[in-house]
Specification:
Elements (H helix, E strand, L loop, with lengths): L9 E4 L2 H7 L5 E2 L2 E2 L11 E7 L2 E4 L6 E4 L3 E4 L20 E2 L3 E3 L13 H10 L2 E6 L2 E6 L18 H10 L5 H19 L27 E4 L2 H6 L6 E2 L2 E2 L11 E7 L2 E3 L6 E3 L5 E3 L28 E3 L4
Antiparallel strand pairs: 1-4, 1-9, 2-3, 4-7, 5-6, 7-8, 10-11, 12-15, 12-19, 13-14, 15-18, 16-17
Length: 319
């Protein structure tokens, strides 16, 4: 992979006219959309939090990882769903390097604000498109998550180890973290081979225990229950009403967090349809997938929010 931005670099989001010159009629650069939610960050400076050279593919037919070029994440800049009818997934935004400039590049330039209305109009027009689902033409949402596969490529055969090593080379991962995750991966693989470890982190042999609904709201303080308590609220496949408790959620057991939001609707990245969630689901402040426990997706920098059932939490006042 060619040299480009590295984690820790400080960049400035380019002006509206410069970005408009890099996107096509669908507001995309290399099939990755520049979305309306990103307009608020134009002209401002941020730090590269991670290089998006390897990200996890979470679609139904996902292959584990996808390869990106010239793309980064900035700080904790997330999509607020304002341009997509209130989607609450809170995805970390991806930035093509052509939309950014290193802060050391201080050449005189116009502010380019005259082009903002045209850029905004193009991005908003591209938030939906017509696609075929089950033989029918339907209007679907379009965002970076729905276009992730189109905007990337599969890793070539035989690149299994190199893609993880590149996480160290680009500054995403330190040597210490790299070795810890490598050791954990080897240990988990050995544990499964010996029949000492299952495919899911927690489960129970019977139906999940039901609990009283909490009706949690944004800003409330909650404590994640213990592993034993959460296991009782899961079925044998490690799910509660279809929602899985995965490996990335284990480190948060027994710890206290504030509710970031109550999630009621998200865009399905497979179909582009808006899904209305029928059961309780919340996300927690400061709780995101680290990529350190995700088998086959080690070190993914997407920092996706895990979804929590109220049965796995308790109000701090109730402790």
């Amino acid at each position: 992979m060619k040299a480009g931005l590295r984690a820790g670099d400080v960049v400035e989001v380019r002006t509206p006219d410069e970005i408009l010159a890099t996107v096509d009629a669908d507001a995309c650069t290399g099939a990755l959309p520049f979305m309306p939610e990103m307009l608020a960050f134009v002209g401002r400076r941020f730090t590269v939090s991670a290089v998006a050279s390897k990200v996890c593919d979470t679609t139904i037919d996902g292959t584990g990882n996808r390869r990106f070029h010239d793309t980064v994440f900035l700080d904790d800049l997330r999509c607020d769903g304002s341009g997509h009818d209130g989607c609450q997934a809170g995805c970390l935004l991806m930035w093509r390097e052509s939309w950014l400039r290193p802060v050391s590049h201080e050449a005189d330039r116009a502010d380019g604000e005259d082009a903002r209305p045209a850029l905004e109009a193009r991005t908003r027009a591209a938030t939906t498109h017509t696609r075929e689902i089950d033989g029918r033409q339907v209007e679907a949402y379009r965002c970076q998550a729905t276009e992730l596969v189109a905007a990337s490529e599969p890793f070539p055969p035989g690149d299994r180890g190199r893609k993880y090593l590149h996480e160290v080379q680009c500054g995403n991962v330190g040597i210490g973290r790299f070795l810890r995750v490598l050791a954990r991966a080897a240990s988990r693989k050995l544990g499964r081979a010996l029949g000492l470890r299952g495919q899911v982190p927690l489960s129970s042999p019977g139906p999940p225990a039901s609990g009283d609904p909490l009706g949690l709201r944004r800003g409330e303080l909650v404590r994640v229950k213990s592993k034993r308590e959460i296991a009782r609220a899961l079925d044998e496949s490690g799910r509660n009403r279809g929602l899985s408790f995965d490996w990335e959620m284990l480190p948060y057991c027994g710890r206290t967090y504030r509710v970031r939001d109550r999630v009621e609707q998200i865009i399905d990245e497979n179909t582009g349809a808006m899904i209305q969630l029928k059961s309780d689901c919340v996300i927690l402040d400061g709780v995101a997938c680290s990529g350190d426990l995700s088998e086959g997706r080690w070190f993914c920098p997407r920092a996706i929010y895990p979804y929590w059932r109220e049965a796995w939490l308790r109000r701090v006042d109730d402790v």
